[in-house]
Amino acid sequence: MAPSSIRVTAAALMLTAVAGGAVAQERAFDFALIGDMPYTKVQEIEYQRVLTALNASDLAFVAHIGDFQFDATPYNRNPAVAAMPCVDENYRAVYDSFQSIRHAFILTPGDNDWSDCWPLEAKKVDPLELLAKVRTLFFPEGLSLGRKPMAVRHQSADPNFSKFRENLRWSIGGVTFVTVHIVGENDNFGRTPEMDAEQLERKAANVAWLKQAFAEAKAANSRGVVILTQANPGFENFWPANARTRYFLRFVPRGQPVPSRPLAFGDYVQTLSEELESYDRPVAFLHGDTHIFRIDKPLYSKKTNRLFENFTRVETFGWPDSHWVRISVDPADPQLFRFRAEIVPENVVNRRAN
């Protein structure tokens, strides 16, 4: 499709969204969250079942939270277990799987998808070149992926952040959605001077994009905000002392120091907490990275040392578990969001013996 045709298509989609906005404002809808898959050849089969389940569901869109391929380090130890990551053939296969979804499809990249590719032994790769490839392949101008692409805005429209086409924003049903490119493995910080420079530049863009999303939500009187990113930022590391003590009491002897290590996520958690101090609508923070399905409220106010009741974190399933999460958005519900684990029956491993 020619670039001019893409712009016309995106403009038409935006006009359609505006025209249908009055109806959509009052209508409940669902969207899907997946991530950290497919890793291995076994999970590729399970992943196809997840895609089938998504295509059979009525969804506004599907979001993949990143890490769409195996980590290069375990691949080096046993290449037979997975398709080779970080190479053109695998990127194309993943892209084709995303395009098989009958809904709009959103991606935010993960560390496996570019920053953790450097150890690959079978082929020399440059993570920064792979990042450029990911941006070009998975983020068409003005549109999502999927068979029914929807209009999105890219941070790269701002000349100050022209690289960051992967950071997206859109609105459905009066809810502001935003993707933020934060990755696992400490957000690619602490490896080489080149990687540190990349992380610092991306962090500045991410923080600015988060702040803009909340500013837009306030200006538009949004019902709520949904933030989608790959990394688990380790909220527990930033809790007030009494909360951290209660959390670790079962694992660390009383009187012993609570474990901690320097993390690159502090500015992100601080930005979130600062924005929540002046935003009282529901906020959902959706991520992957640690592959543990969970729903909790892990963000604390520095003013009160109490958790923000309107902030909910959801982590989706990930390797080796191949399922998905349904998020329902209901304007009639004071909490706005409901979260449901969708277990794919054929992917259940803990079956009772007959």
Structure, explained:
- With 354 residues, this protein is of the alpha/beta class.
- The protein has one domain (19-345): Metallo-dependent phosphatases (Purple Acid Phosphatase, chain A, domain 2), CATH 3.60.21.
- The protein contains ten helices and 13 strands.
- It has helices at 3-19, 21-24, 41-55, 72-77, 88-99, 127-138, 184-187, 193-219, 241-248, 266-276; strands spanning 29-34, 61-64, 104-107, 145-146, 153-154, 168-172, 175-179, 224-228, 283-287, 294-296, 311-315, 324-329, 337-342.
- The chain has a seven-stranded mixed β-sheet with strand order 5-6-7-8-9-11-10, covered by helices on one side. Strands 4-3-2-1-12-13 form a six-stranded mixed β-sheet, with no helix packed on it.
- A hairpin with a 7-residue loop joins β12 and β13 (337-342).
- α8 (193-219) runs parallel beside α10.
- The longest helix is centred in the middle third of the chain and has 27 residues, at 193-219.
- The chain is globular.
- The model is unreliable at 1-24 (pLDDT under 50).
